[in-house]
Amino acid sequence: MTGGRLLMAVAAAAMVGALPFMADNYILRIATSMLMYATLAMSWNFIGGFAGYPSFATAAFFGLGAYAGAVLQTKGVPMIAAWIVAGMIVTVFAAAVGRAILHLRGHYFAIASLVIADVLREVINGMTNLTGGGMGLNLPVLKIDVTTQAQFFYCAMLAVALLALATSVILDRSRVGFGLRCIEQNEDAALRLGIHTSRYKTIAFSLSSVYPALAGAVYASWVSYIDPAEAFDVLFSIKPIIMALLGGAGTIVGPVVGAFIFQVMEELVWRNFLNVHLGLLGLIVVLLILFLPKGLLGIGLLSPRGRPLTAKAP
Amino acid sequence: MLYLQVLINGILLGGLYSCIAVGFSLVWGVLNIINIMHGSLIILGAYAAYFAFTLLGINPFVFVPIAGVALFVLGYALQAGVINRVMGAPVLITLTLTFGLNLILENAMIFAFKADYRKVIIDPPLGLIEIGSAFVPRDRLYAMLLALLLVGGLYAVLRTTRIGRAIVAVRMDREAAALMGVNVPRIYAITFGLGALMAGSAGSLMSVIFPISPLTSVAFLGKAFVICVLGGLGSIPGVMVGGIALGVLESFGSLWLGPDYSTTIAFVLLLALLMFRPTGIMGKRGFE
């Protein structure tokens, strides 16, 4: 790591650490949501960036995590324990689903992963007794003042994001990460070279589920009300992908940078154009794909470690 | 006879469904692109028919070819101007691009038409045909027959015309087709245009039967997915089988489990099929 980059990293860490004591609740709310999206983008990166599998299942993991955490809390489980159990439930779920759909490739995998959230939404809509169905679910309100609450959820989301970041760094340097990059380049060749592709893909898919589940559970407590349409919103699958692509998919800092820039743009630009803000989002996606397919890291602003997602000849 | 009636409803719906899915299947099969915009293109066709009917008094059944041509031009321009730039990129890139385009189109439609539900109401109603104890609504029957005619027409174009053969050739082997003198980017644009044409025509037919709103586009997209996987990618007869199968399944599903579960049935079916038989009922390689 060069001196300049080290300095940038230290400055960023200092800012992130000092924020809860300096900023007002509005800034803190935006920062918490930024950390949440950075978590989702980093998690998507495990399967989508490293292994090159176009997963649209992030919303499913996020929503299921939110509901698991919320239902456990309404049954009297303490909040932090509920978050952790929710993370474990979703990881087991992802491993099981992953075994079933990870043999699919390309478009088929994309659709199968996209549909998981729809099925879960319908199932949770139907289980009215447990989840409140379409009426949504209210969570127990914390009996602390608003500022403390904002600081607490910022720290909780920061912890989840740091875990995801640590996992990225470890994965990048590990044997599994190397195997996943091989799968991204040529899965058949990787298999012939003795990489246990189905095991590695399942590991990546499970890793890409655990942090969104935790983030979902924290999010549910943070906003203290969830309903199926919102918790399984397809944008929870799409936005992390756009952020990862914006920063540079398959790299460590790319998803974080992408999430940061995306959220800043959202706050500065789109809030002022409510009627057309989805259209503007679409426009940015189109321009990004056409002119910046390797992300911001791809144009040499920062030299990325690892190979960013590149266009392949068919 | 209740079951006969449910079966007839299912087949009437299924004919329309195959028209919805055939353009999606063509684009997926030939261009290897999942066109997330497909549902919105259907809605756009439906709106065009709705406004032609309310403002100009043109019958939606007559409007079908006009909507088709208009959407063909739009589709051709989109492919030639935008999507052709990323052909051959990984799935994620093309998928995200059509998703972005769809956001723009959907937002533009909500902005222009509002999210209200609207429906073409033909006055006087076309009435019913009685077969034994079952009834066949004439508007649905005509819509289904026209839909199947369109699907058959596309099949004939692909089988018999020079452009159709070129499309099939590009699907089978892009490089070889280029070496034989086929202008591949132009064929891509025509194929995408044909996909949009089928979507627009299906939309015009839909406007008579279902209430339309920009918000319903996702449902149509989902159905197109399911039908392609059900019937198998790469053949028009497969799409027809898949469409009618889904129509009948949804009809019986809503009879036995209630109408709320019809989409859930379709999605669970989709997941199961993807797991156990990803090639579908009649799937094969090459588009014929």
List SSEs of chain B in N-to-C order.
Answer: HHHHEEHHHHHHH
Radius of gyration of chain A equals: 19 Å
Number of helices of chain B: 11
The pLDDT mean of chain A sits at 84
Secondary-structure element order of chain A, as H and E? HHHHHHEHHHHEHHHH
Query: For the largest beta sheet of chain B, what order do the strands appear in spatially?
Result: 1-2
By secondary-structure content and strand pairing, the structural class of chain A works out as: mainly alpha
Biggest interface goes to:
A-B, 44 and 40 residues
Report the span from N to C terminus of chain A. 36 Å
Task: Tell me the strand percentage band of chain A.
Answer: under 5%
Cα-atom Rg of chain B, whole angstroms? 18 Å
Structural class of chain B: mainly alpha
Number of helices of chain A: 14
Give the end-to-end Cα distance of chain B, rounded to a whole number of Å: 39 Å
Proportion of residues in β-strands of chain B = under 5%
The main sheet of chain A orders its strands as: 1-2
- Share in helix of chain A: over 70%
Q: In this structure, how is the largest beta sheet of chain A organized? A: 2 strands, antiparallel
Mean pLDDT of chain B: 84
What structural keywords apply?
heterodimer; A: 314 residues; mainly alpha; two-stranded antiparallel ribbon; 14 helices; globular; B: 288 residues; 2 strands; 74% helix; disordered C terminus
Q: Any overview of this molecule?
A:
The complex is a heterodimer of chains A (about 325) and B (about 290). Chain A is mostly helical and about 325 residues long. Chain A has a domain at about 20-235. Chain A is built from 14 helices and two strands. A two-stranded antiparallel ribbon of chain A has the order 1-2. The two termini of chain A are about 35 Å apart. Chain B is an all-alpha fold. Chain B has a domain at about 15-115 and about 135-215. Chain B is about 75% helix and about 5% strand. Chain B is built from eleven helices and two strands; from the N terminus they run ααααββααααααα. A two-stranded antiparallel ribbon of chain B has the order 1-2. In chain B, strand 1 and strand 2 form a beta hairpin. The longest helix of chain B is centred in the first third of the chain and has 30 residues, at about 1-30. The relative contact order of chain B is 0.21.
